[in-house]
Write a structure and sequence with these properties.
Elements lengths: L2 E8 L4 E6 L2 H9 L5 H4 L4 E9 L2 H12 L3 H10 L4
Length: 84
């Protein structure tokens, strides 16, 4: 199973970080207003950044690390991303 840590950019410019094992479906769920409470009032949200992992534990650990980063740190991740 592949798991992902991801960042969404919400319509108001804020960033939301999460993890999932189905990235395409999770972004669709967020944009349907059925995702996290945080994103529901900030739609639409677009996928800003993601990383893939072999286990959900790795993805969850990376999610926690990203959440501790400053906004500028999160924004700088985009520049290091290989794929969008």
């Amino acid at each position: 199973m592949t798991a992902y840590a991801y960042i969404l950019r919400c319509a108001d410019g804020t960033l939301y970080t999460g993890w999932t094992n189905d990235l395409k479906r999770r972004v669709a769920v967020h944009n349907a207003g059925q995702g996290a409470k945080y994103t529901r009032g900030r739609l639409p949200a677009e996928l800003f950044y993601y990383e893939s992992f072999d286990t959900k534990e790795e993805a969850m650990s990376r999610e926690a690390a990203i959440k501790k980063m400053s906004r500028s740190g999160k924004l700088s991740l985009k520049n290091s991303q290989i794929h969008e």
